[in-house]
Amino acid sequence: MTQQRTVVVTGGNRGIGRAIAEEFVALGHRVAVTARSGGGPEGTLTVRAEMTDAASIDAAFAEIEAALGPVEVVVANAGITRDTLLLRMSEEDFTDVVDTNLGGAFRVVKRASKGMLKARFGRVVLISSVVGLYGSAGQINYSASKSALVGFARSLTRELGARGITANVVAPGFIETDMTAALPEEQQAEYKRAIPAARYGSAAEVAKAVTWLASDDAAYISGAVIPVDGGLGMGH
User: Which among 102, 130, 186, 227 has the fewest CB atoms less than 10 Å away?
Assistant: First the structure.
C-alpha cells in the first residue's frame, strides 16, 4: 500500500483534472486543487491560482502547505486552448497558450520542488496530449506547449532523479469531457475511426495512470511518456 501523500492538481475543478483529484481522494491522499473559478471535488481543498503569475502560485502553495503539509505530488494539468490556423494565429493566441500551459507547469513545479528536495521524495506528473507529438491542424500553439512538457520532464529527471524525485508525462488522447461532447456528431465519428480502440477514453482512465505514476510502485519510472489514447498516437 502506497502511503498517503499531499497532492496538488492544477486545474482540478473540471474535466480530466477533476477526475485525477477524485481518484487521489479515493485512494486516501490529502488533495488540493487549484482553480481560477469553481471548486474541486468533495474531499479536496480548493485554492485560487493564476498559472501565469508566480506570486499567485506561491501564495496558493503556502495555503496548501499550511492546511495539508508539504506537497509531495504535483500534477500540472491546468491548460487553455486558442485554436486557429497559423496564418490567423495572433501573437497573443500563441503566447497566452504557451505561458499558461508550459509556463504554468514551470512555475508550479519550481515552487513544489523546494519541498520535494527537502523531503528527498517527489512525484511530478505533467499532463500533455496526444497532439503534442501527433500534431493537429489549428493547434500549433497548444501542441507546441504540450510537446515541450516532454523535454521538461526529461531535463527535470536528470536534475532531480538522484533525490528520490520522478517526473513523467501522461498524454491523453480523445477523452469524454464537456469539450468533446460539444463536437458535431459527424466529427466525433470521424475521430473515433482514427482510434484503434474505436472509442473515446474516460477521464477516470487518465486518472488511474496518473495515480499509478505517483505511487511507490512507479518509483523507478522517470522521464517517460505514458499515452492514454486507445492507440491513436502509437510510435510517439
Answer: 186
